[in-house]
Design a protein that fits this description.
alpha/beta, Aspartate Aminotransferase, domain 2, 7-stranded mixed β-sheet, 4-stranded antiparallel β-sheet, PyrdxlP-dep_Trfase_major, L-threonine aldolase
């Protein structure tokens, strides 16, 4: 598995054209990019000041929040946000989506570390509605919305649906928390600014390595009371690091250089998705995409498609779409497509032409 991953990364890095994703950054690439995020002749942070404090101030302003706190990981930030809701309300249950990050990707830290439990307002592949929140059978401390809901296909509610759902959460006495790891690309679909979106919530978490290309790091934004609580629990969880200036500077670089381009990524993702949908047996979802990421299905085994992506990259220096996984339908596989900077260079005609060559390689591998 390690050798396959290294071979894939090498093929992507050597490709002249990349449709889905971005060219993998080396450590040298990251170091070179740090200068764009701040003054390298300045002093590094000391337990959270300096460039870390600058990131916190910048994100608080972007989200229209009173304060923001830098965390080494989003998992830690969200655990603290939900613990805060439970401690303030005395309710040890949070309303989550079964496909949400806390349920799928955090090894049940909510229960094991926080002593909390979850309830599901819905199992449908979308965020919960106002009616579903109102119908919850037990009191909850926090209602979590993941914007967009990645494991349902990067889907978003409409603005009106989100407003109504947040109001319903408050009507039952719950806080509203946004898992906004990818909230950066949600503004075009919701047709509102980051501060307007975050203004619907009591707290919002954002990531810097997702979408913005940072090294690592996250921020939890909300009230000054939440921030004070978060700093205490960040320390208790082991997140009070001595220095985090590389992550902080790369976050600032992403905010300056990548964030302004995200709406363009989202617009072009719709062009790419429409072109991919014309390939034989292809299906995209959502159609059109809500963000610059969406799902693609093709009628071939995952190994065949992954081998085809690698073969095309190594032979023609063109990276199409990788990361294929089997689905519940035999012989049909699914991948996530991410249209970022390199993908902007692809016209709809390019997508169809290379897609047909990709499928030809896949067909040859199956024969």
């Amino acid at each position: 598995m390690h050798d396959t991953r290294q071979r894939r990364l090498a093929a992507q890095a050597a490709s002249d054209r990349i449709l889905s994703g971005a060219r993998p950054a080396t450590m040298r690439d990251h170091l070179a990019a740090l200068a764009a995020g701040g003054d390298l002749d300045g002093q590094p942070d000391f337990y959270g000041d300096g460039p870390v404090a600058t990131v916190e101030e910048r994100v608080a302003e972007l989200l229209g929040a009173e304060a923001a706190v830098f965390f080494p990981t989003g998992t830690m930030a969200q655990q603290v946000a939900l613990r805060y809701g439970a401690d303030r309300s005395g309710r040890r249950t949070a309303a989550l989506h079964p496909l949400g990050h806390q349920e799928v990707h955090e090894r049940h830290a909510l229960a094991h570390l926080g002593g909390l439990r979850s309830t599901w307002p819905t199992t449908m592949p979308r965020n919960p509605t106002a009616d579903e929140i109102s119908a919850l059978a037990e009191p909850v401390s926090t209602v979590v919305f993941e914007l967009p809901l990645r494991d349902a296909g990067f889907v978003l509610p409409s603005w009106d649906e989100l407003v109504a759902a947040c109001a319903a959460a408050r009507a039952i006495g719950a806080r509203v928390h946004f898992d906004g790891a990818r909230i950066w690309e949600s503004t075009p679909y919701l047709a509102h600014t980051l501060s307007e979106i975050a203004g619907l919530a009591d707290s919002t978490y954002v990531s810097f390595y997702k979408t913005l290309g940072g090294i690592s790091g996250a921020v939890l934004a909300g009230t000054t009371e939440l921030a004070a609580y978060a700093r205490v629990w960040r320390h208790r969880y082991g997140g009070q690091l001595f220095q985090q200036w590389p992550a902080a500077l790369s976050a600032l670089a992403g905010l300056d250089r990548v964030l302004p381009r995200v709406p363009e990524y989202v617009r072009h993702a719709r062009t790419v998705a429409a072109a991919l949908a014309t390939l034989p047996g292809a299906r995209v979802y959502p159609d059109p995409p809500h963000t610059h990421q969406f799902r693609l299905w093709l009628p071939h085994p995952a190994k065949t498609l992954n081998d085809a992506a690698l073969a095309l990259a190594e032979k023609e220096k063109v990276w199409f779409v990788g990361g294929w996984q089997e689905t519940e339908v035999p012989g049909v596989s699914r991948a996530e497509v991410t249209v970022a900077g390199p993908g902007l260079e692809w016209s709809a005609e390019d997508v169809v032409e290379i897609g047909e060559r990709f499928l030809h390689v896949a067909g040859a591998l199956r024969d």
